[in-house]
Amino acid sequence: MFLKRLTIALAALATASVLQGAAALWALSVANHHAEHGRVTGDIHLGFVELSATKQRLRTWVSQALLGAGPAPDERDRLEQELSAKVEQLRGLAQQAILLGNNLGVEDRQGQFERQEALDVLARGLARLGKAIDAVQPLPPGANAREAWDALTAVFEESEGRNLRTLIAQSIARAASSVERERAAADRTLRLMRTMWVGSSVALALAALVMAAHFARALRRPITELTTGAEALQRGELDHRVPTQSHDEFATVVRSLNAMATELKQHRQREDRARLKLQELVDERTSELRTALDSLQQADARRRQLFADISHELRSPTTAIRGEAEVALRGRQRAPEEYQEALRRIVEVSRQLGLVIDDLLTMARGDIDALALHRLPLDPALPVQEAVVQSMPLAREKGVQLLAPGVPAEALSVLADAQRLRQLVLLLIDNAVRYSHPQGEVRVSLQAVRDEHGRGHCEVCVVDAGIGISQDDLPHIFERNYRGALARLHRADGTGLGLAIGAVLARAHGGTVVVDSQPGHGTTARLRLPLLSEPALLLNEP
User: Fold this and answer.
1) Are 34 and 182 in contact (CB under 8 A)?
2) Is the pLDDT of residue 540 over 70?
3) What are its E.C. numbers (predicted)?
4) Is the confidence at residue 377, as pLDDT, over 90?
5) For the whole model, what pTM was predicted?
6) What is the rounded distance in angstroms from the CA atom of residue 200 to the CA atom of residue 209?
7) Which residues pair with 462 in a beta bridge?
8) What is the CATH number of domain 373-540?
9) For a designed S-S bond to 429, which of 111, 252, 385, 391 qualifies (C-beta 3.0 to 4.6 A apart)?
10) Which fold has domain 245-365?
11) pLDDT at residue 536 above 50?
């Protein structure tokens, strides 16, 4: 793991730094001990020198006393005390030197013993010297001065068979040698410390450089790959994946980055799908709105045409009625038969005018919910017969033979409004008669049938041999104000409302109107209404 390697490297550098500091402290401690030992040794050297000088001054005082020069007694006491103090000071310094020398392993046991022995000899010699000095008297006249001087020299120079001057000189030389030795040791320690410090610093610097180069090289590739991957994601390249070639912390980051890229790609795909779906919905709604707008525009155009046609339809009957009435009232008295014929024509025109007005009212209501129906169980044969009878004058006028349906052997029962059912059948018959050729034939039949689900229906079938309807016009014949090309050629004064109103009335009764036709071969219109009961003898398979 990269973090583990980095931690180990930093820990190694920290350990090396601590060791370097510890070594420096050790070297400083050793140098300090050498310096301390050198200082003590120097004090010992100085002490022996001062001891020798004080001893020499005391010897001078004794010489003056022998010669009767009258030296001051206080000077003798001071010099004796100074000698004693120097010896005690040297004893203390010798003990310090022994301790420092033992700690450093510098001074050998023999040198320590010789110094201690010299101090002991000096102490005892100084004690005897003090007693001898106390007994010194000026030489009497005629005394041998040479013998007195030799005796004094023996007291000052010898003690316990040892020459004090030589002993002091050896101690001074030994102390001087020790001082030089400690100085050299301190210098060596300082040089060692300097060398070690420089070497360890250089080693640490090299190690830090090597580690920096190693980690820089180790970091360059993953950081470059991560940067490249992040820039690719920033550019929107969600298919880009950062390669995973290790198992360290960078691999974890790479896996997270790749997972994020996958998640972003999935989100973008979902967003694209949602956008496409929304676009499809918008296009679909736009198409529906455009279709609805086109339908409204077409309906508006047909409505304007309808109003023009209705104006013509209303104007023609009213003009005819007024004309018949004016003819009947004008001139001489006429026979009753002539008045009856005029009134008959007025009634016929009024009937046509009533049909047009009914169409207008139905058109104004607009849909099924607006129709006022009073549905009751009834036999559909009677409304069908009434519709056929009402259509007879129109059939005679058009020269068309209208064949009435036979009476079923068993009565049928439907839930219907008799007036509206008669109007519906009348619309189908009127449409068949008006679009038949002269000398043509229109057949009306009534029967019970079953649909594809086995449910019983009452079927009123109106069949003509007229002009027919083209296949292009068939899907639109139930639209209001729509008239096909053949219908406009055969009869220019139609309104295009008959079948539209018929479909509305059929749906209001829970039934359907189905039209089959071939141009030039006539048309078949089937009105089906649900039966309340199903007579077994009259049901035929459709």
Assistant:
1) yes
2) no
3) 2.7.13.3
4) yes
5) 0.40
6) 14
7) 444, 525
8) 3.30.565.10
9) 391
10) Helix Hairpins (1.10.287)
11) no
